[in-house]
Amino acid sequence: MLADPRAGTANQALGIAERLGVPFRVVELGWSAWARGPWPWPTLAGLDAAARARIVPPWPRLVLSAGRRSAPVALWLGQRGVRTVHAMRPGFGAARFDLLVLGRHDRPRPAPNVIEIVGACHRVSAAVLAQARAEWAELAALPSPRVAVLVGGPVRAEGLDRGTAERLIPRVLARFPDASLLVTTSRRTGTEATALIAAALADRPHRLFRWGDAGPNPYLGYLAFADAIVVTGDSVSMLAEACATAAPVFVATRERGRHERMIESLMNAGRARPLRVAAAPFPVTPLDEADRVAAAIRARGLLD
Question: Taking all residues of the chain, what is their mean pLDDT, rounded to a whole number?
């Protein structure tokens, strides 16, 4: 399995690998300056020297990859007889992969080697949530209902904007006035927005984990113990992972482009709704697209 340095990207391939239930090796990738440009053919040119040194025989039966930069590497292995499964848009050579895993929000063209999924693949499985529930049993002491609030931030900006940060917790409390809040911020939230969110939690039963806090991150525990989950709509990973739980998911922000289309696909699948005061809890079925992809890999004989 080829691991992009970005955790959210790597986890899409890693989640599929874990669902397959067979031994696998993780090859950490690192990029050279050549990785910035699009490569229209299979090559290792975008890798730094350390990563290239890790791509050595014996070749595996199957390679799992995710993200545009890893696509030329996967196809280079494909030229050596390795079967290829790639998540996310590869940028080129779509027809050359044995299986291409694309989100419905990316509007993929139908093709024999394409499997269309809702949202994105990730590592949050039923087994992972069960383990997190045991590891974070202390969270059960917070009064129910427990609402997890997963806070991201703009992909290419300096932190969550002040207005959104100021309104977020009051909006959650307007919808869930008696709830305990399990709040986590991310690298993209920013210190100012995090401080505003922390201030809004005063006098409310809660647990707050700020990005960079010492100690283990309770994120998975939050997912495991949440009776409902509120997510900012800017993070594909957090949206998809929240939808892997048995809790209803409410989206707190309006987005544009790919994120807007992803949110729409989750809502059309009955897995998420907008955060509104009148929004009622709704029955859900956990969404585990990585497991569905693993089943497709087995059905196509790609492990044989």
Answer: 94
Whether the CB-CB separation of 217 and 197 falls below 8 Å is answered with no
Handedness of CA 6, 9, 14, 17 (dihedral sign): negative
Say if CB 247 and CB 226 are below 8 A apart: yes
- Whether residue 280 is predicted with pLDDT greater than 80 in this model: the reply is no
CB atoms under 10 Å from CB of 195, counted, come to 12
Cis amide leading into 283 (omega within 30): no
Paired with 170 in beta bridges are none
Nearest to 293 by CA among 42, 60, 25, 18: 18
Query: What are the tens digits of pLDDT across the range 61-95?
Result: 999 999 999 999 999 999 999 999 999 999 999 99
User: How far is Cα 245 from Cα 129, in angstroms, rounded to an integer?
Assistant: 8
What is the side-by-side strand order in the sheet with 249-251? 206-209, 180-184, 146-150, 228-231, 249-251, 272-274
Q: Which amino acid does the sequence have at 84?
A: T
The answer to whether residues 137 and 226 touch, using CB atoms and an 8 Å cutoff, is no
Report the SS3 class of residue 279.
coil
The tokens of 290 are what?
């990585």
Answer for the pair 159, 250: CB distance below 8 angstroms, yes or no: no
pLDDT of residue 157: 64
Sequence-ordered alpha helix ranges (H) in the chain: 7-20, 49-54, 71-78, 126-135, 162-175, 191-200, 219-225, 236-242, 257-268, 289-299
Q: Are 264 and 246 in contact (CB under 8 A)?
A: no
pLDDT of 56 over the 70 cut: yes
Q: Which residues pair with 116 in a beta bridge?
A: 102
**What pLDDT score was predicted for residue 225?**
98
